[in-house]
Design brief:
This protein is of the alpha/beta class. It is built from 16 helices and eleven strands. A six-stranded parallel beta sheet has the order 3-2-1-4-5-6, with helices on both faces. Helix 1 crosses helix 6.
């Protein structure tokens, strides 16, 4: 069995909050050494995005909250004040031996400190330098700051999310979690891995990667946005209704709700049989999927009435027997108690100084030859500062003490 896929790759991570840190965490899971740079005293902004926080051994408030914990495992935390010349020099020195540098500062901010791509490339010509921003490195909005919800709104995602017009509570709606941050983190990882391959395959050339949240959310709308590009019409909000196979949506049963997606005509016929109305499959209005889309409100209303006759568990069992895609609408307690989720090991345990068996979510990629098995807890603020600066830059205790006293680290 081989080592982890990215063993030997070194990353200098200046990203904060969520999108960049999620990408760096994924790369750390895959074996990269990730040095996370944080502000002395405060650290990553995400550390203040609480509660809830872990309780430290003395019961005191701390900066290890769920927002930070979800995106920073497997890294080394080094505190450096980038606003001070000596802090900037530390970053340049660390960058000399790194393969990748990641940052998510506003466009132009790092140029003031000579930590921009051109400055870092001057000391490390092969560096892969990835900038993660809200609006990208170019365009009239490039200088702007922004957060996930802003891009859900500006990129069109909210316009097609929420209850259907005419229903109670209709109107644009934000997706619950910070989904644009997560997708941007995935794109960031893809870009970095592609650039890393290019460098190794084509003579060692580094490059600057520009990834932003607005581009990501627009691209993620895929077939929804393509509908607009084809015919000029924005798809309507559908609530839980599907947008391909019909009927599809959440249906209330006697004791809860389930989600059903009927993806083709054969599945529709089997669903009708399970519901005790096999003749619906022969109705001219419903025979083909396109017909069911046209008559969607009618077939959804019929199905809604039929599902109200029995409990969720009954319908799920019968629909599964019939090979019809369906599932319960779980809360998080049900998700992590699900036998399939447990067998897949989606909840992992790590040893954290404040919690010996801290639960985290595992990396979702499974490798046959280079499995990710050992996870390290997200670091405490500045936990690895002395270790990294001593081992990477040769700083002795006297120099480290002086830098600490000056507030540089």
């Amino acid at each position: 069995m081989s080592g982890l896929p990215l063993s030997g790759v070194k990353i200098l991570d200046l990203t904060r909050v969520l999108a960049g840190p999620l990408s760096a965490q994924m790369l750390a899971d895959l074996g990269a050494e990730v040095i996370k740079i944080e502000r002395p005293g405060g650290g990553d902004d995400a550390r203040a995005f609480g509660p809830p926080y872990l309780v430290d051994p003395e019961g005191k408030e701390n900066n290890n909250n769920s927002f930070y914990l979800c995106a920073n495992r497997g890294k080394k935390s080094v505190t450096v004040d980038l606003a001070k010349p000596q802090g900037q020099e530390i970053i340049r020195e660390l960058a000399k031996s790194c393969d990748i540098m990641m940052e998510n500062f506003k466009v132009g901010d790092l140029k003031r400190y000579k930590l921009d791509y051109e400055s870092i490339r001057a000391v490390n010509p092969g560096i892969i330098y990835c900038s993660v921003t809200g609006f990208g490195q170019t365009g009239p909005y490039a200088p702007r700051a922004g957060y996930d919800a802003i891009f859900q709104a500006m990129g069109g995602l909210m316009s097609v999310t929420g209850h259907m017009d005419g229903e109670s509570g209709a109107g644009p709606m934000k997706v619950g979690p910070s989904i644009v941050d997560y997708m941007t983190g995935m794109n960031t990882s893809i870009g970095i891995l592609a650039a890393l391959y290019h460098r190794r395959a084509n003579g060692g050339a580094g490059q600057h990667i520009d990834v932003c949240l607005l581009d990501t959310v627009i691209a993620s709308l895929s077939h929804y946005a393509q509908i607009y590009l084809v015919n000029g019409n924005t798809p309507p909000r559908r609530g839980t209704w599907g947008n391909g196979g019909m009927p599809a949506g959440a249906f209330r049963c006697t004791d809860g709700e389930l989600m059903l997606v009927v993806g083709n005509d054969a599945q529709f016929a089997r669903t009708c049989a399970v519901l005790g109305r096999p003749e619906l499959a022969a109705d001219p209005k419903f025979i083909k999927n396109n017909d069911r889309v046209v008559h969607g409100k009618e077939i959804m209303a019929i199905f809604a009435e039929l599902f109200l006759k029995k409990p969720v568990a009954y319908w799920l069992e019968e629909l599964e027997k019939a090979g019809v895609p369906c599932g319960p609408i779980n809360d998080f307690a049900q998700v992590f108690a699900d036998r399939h989720v447990r067998e897949r090991g989606m909840e992992i345990k790590v040893n954290h100084p404040f919690e010996p068996a801290l639960s985290l979510i595992r990396n979702p990629i499974t490798f046959s030859e280079t499995p990710v098995k050992d996870y390290r807890a997200p670091p405490l603020l500045g936990e690895n500062t002395r270790e990294v600066l001593a081992s990477k830059l040769g700083y002795d205790d006297a120099r480290l003490d002086a830098l600490k006293k000056q507030g540089i680290i």
